[in-house]
Amino acid sequence: MAYLVLGLVLFLGVHSVRIVADGWRTQTLARMGEMPWKGLYSLVSAVGLALIVWGYGLARQQPVVLWVPPIGMRHAASLLTLIAFILLAATYVPRNAIKARLHHPMVLGVKVWALAHLLSNGNLADVLLFGSFLLWAVLSFRAARQRDRAMNTGYAPGTAAGTGVAVVVGAVAWVGFAFWAHAWLIGVAPLAR
C-alpha cells in the first residue's frame, strides 16, 4: 500500500500545483523556462503513475475488503464510465457544446470515472485510489472555474457536428476499453457475462 500512497502523492501532488500554488507555479515556470518545467513535471508524473500502477497491483493481491457493492453498481459504473469517456473526448474535439458549456470536461471526466469506480469497488486500495482522484478532481474543477472567472475566460460556442463527434468518439473509445482493453490492461473484465 505504501507504493500506491507514494505514487498518489507524487502524481496528484504535481497535478495540484495550480490548485494550491498557482503563483509559485507561474514564477517557477518563468524562472526555469517552459521546456525544463514540462520535463520535470512529466518525469514526476510518470514516476508517480508507475508507482500507482505497481502499488495498486500489489494491493490487489491481498485485498482488504471494506464492503461488497451490490451487483447493480456495476451497471451504474458502466453508464458513468461511458459519460466519463464522452467528457474526455469533448476535451479534445474542437467546437463541441459539452466543452462550451462545462469548460473543463477532462476534470469532470476524472470525477465521474472515480465516482463510478468507488460505487463498484469496496476494497481499501480502491477507496484510496479512486477516492483520491475524486477529491483531486473536485478541487481541480473548483480552482479551474475560479481561474476562469478571474481571467474572464471565454470558450468557443459548440456546434452540433463537434458535439456529435465528441459523443461518437467517446462512445467508441468506451466500447473498446470496456469490452477489451480494461481486461487486458487491468485484468478485470467489467462487462463479463
TrEMBL record:
The keyword Manganese does not apply. Pfam families: NnrU. InterPro entries: NnrU_dom. Keywords: Membrane, Transmembrane, Transmembrane helix. It comes from the Bacteria. Signal peptide: none annotated. It is found in: Membrane. The chain crosses the membrane at residues 40-59, 71-93, 113-139, 160-185. It is a multi-pass membrane protein. Residues 4-190 form the NnrU domain. This is NnrU family protein. The lineage of its organism: Bacteria, Pseudomonadati, Pseudomonadota, Betaproteobacteria, Burkholderiales.
